[in-house]
Amino acid sequence: MSYISLSDPDKKEMLARIGVSSPDDLFRCIPEGIRLKKELRLPQPLSEPELISHFRAIGRKNREGDHLSFLGAGAYRHYIPAVVDYLSSRGEFISPYTPYQPEVSQGTLQVIFEYQTLVCQLTGMEIANASLYEGASAAAEAVLMAERIKGRPKILVAGSLHPQYREVIRTYVKNISVRIEEIAPDTQGRIDIEALGRAVDNQTSAVVCQSPNFLGVVEDLDRVAEIARRHQALFVVIVAEAVSLGILKPPGAGGADIVAGEGQSLGLPLSFGGPYLGFMACRQDFIRQFPGRIAGETRDTEGKRGFVLTLATREQHIRREKATSNICTNQAWCALRATIFLESLGREGMRELAYQNIQKANYALDRLCSIKGVSRKFSGPVFNEFVLEFEGGYRKIENHLLRNGVLGGLALGPDYPGLEACGLFCVTEVHRKDDIDRLARLVAEAVR
Amino acid sequence: MNREPLIFEISSETKKGFTLPRLDVPEKNEALAGLPLREGISGFPQVSEVEVVRHFTRLSQANFCIDTTFYPLGSCTMKYNPKINEKIAGLAEFQNSHPQSPPGLVQGNLEVLKTLEDFLSEITGMDTATLQPSAGAQGELLGMMLIRACHEDRGDPRKIVLIPDSAHGTNPSSAHICGYRVQEVKSNEQGTIDLAALRQAMTEEVAALMVTNPNTLGVFEWDILEIAEIIHAKGGLVYMDGANMNALVGKFRPGDMGIDVIHLNLHKTFSTPHGGGGPGSGPVGVKKHLEPYLPVPIVEKGPSGYTLNFSRPKSVGRVRSFFGNFLVMVRALAYILSSGASGLKEIAEIAVLNSNYIRKSLEGVYHLKYTAPTLHECVFSDKLQREHGVRNIDIAKRLIDYGLHPPTMSFPLIVPGALMIEPTETESRRDLDQFIEAMKAIAGEAVETPEILKSAPHISPVRRLDETTAARNPVLRWEGPND
Question: Which of B241, B237, B138, B162 is nearest to A172 (CA)?
Answer without folding.
Answer: B138
